[in-house]
Amino acid sequence: MSRIAVLFVMAVLLPTVVKAQAQMTKEQKIADAMKAAPASISAAAAIMDWPATEGGQMMTLRAGTNGWTCLPDFPGTQGDDPMCVDEVWLSFMKAMMSKTPPQIAREGIGYMIASGSGGYGSNTDPYATKAAPDNEWGYDPPHVMLLVPDPKVLQGLPTTRQSGGPWVMWSATPYAHIMVPTESTKK
């Protein structure tokens, strides 16, 4: 979504998540999370794990020192989608999980650039968990995600992943953000 949308329907997929999380060791989760961003960021980032229970808190796998937070693949989704986000994106993610409008005071950046990874999700509905005729379900390649404080600056940008370059995901929602693919959008 970037795959962010599907990542946040954790309550729906939680039983699958708990089972899948038990299959990865702490070290495997850390390694998976670290591949989401350039090493210059992930090497000193906090590594968190997805909540093990509905409404639970993320668990710290490794403390960080640079203000970035990385998470391993969300096991309840199709594809490999680890991510590293700055504090603006982390706040955005918490707003999505609580289904409240995000408060974006400044630009934010998130990385989901693990080579050969990517995932599937809706380009229009942040909470969709499967393909539907109206939710533009598709493959999101490795990418960088950008948040802006003023959604008006997104007007006029492409809103489909087939544009061949950056596009606005979830454009008609409070969760609109720019997706910048680092690999082909074709799978």
Which range best describes the helical content: under 10%, 10-25%, 25-40%, 40-55%, 55-70% or over 70%?
10-25%
**Average pLDDT:** 85
Distance between the amino and carboxyl termini: 15 Å
Helix-strand topology string: HHHHEEEEEHEEEEEE
Count of individual beta strands? 11
Largest sheet: 8 strands, mixed
What would you say this structure looks like, in words?
This protein has 187 residues and is an alpha+beta fold. The protein has one domain (4-181). 21% of the residues lie in helices and 23% in strands. It has five helices and eleven strands, in the order H-H-H-H-E-E-E-E-E-H-E-E-E-E-E-E. The chain has an eight-stranded mixed beta sheet. It has a three-stranded antiparallel beta sheet with strand order 4-7-8. Strand 10 (167-169) and strand 11 (177-181) form a beta hairpin. It is globular. The two termini are 15 Å apart. 40% of the residues are buried. Residues 1-20 have low confidence and may be disordered.
Describe how the helices and strands are arranged.
Layout: H1 4-7, H2 10-21, H3 26-34, H4 39-42, E1 46-49, E2 59-62, E3 69-71, E4 79-80, E5 83-85, H5 87-97, E6 108-112, E7 118-122, E8 137-140, E9 143-147, E10 167-169, E11 177-181
Structure described in brief:
This protein is an alpha+beta fold. Helix content is 21%, strand content 23%.
Keyword list:
single chain; alpha+beta; 11 strands; 23% strand
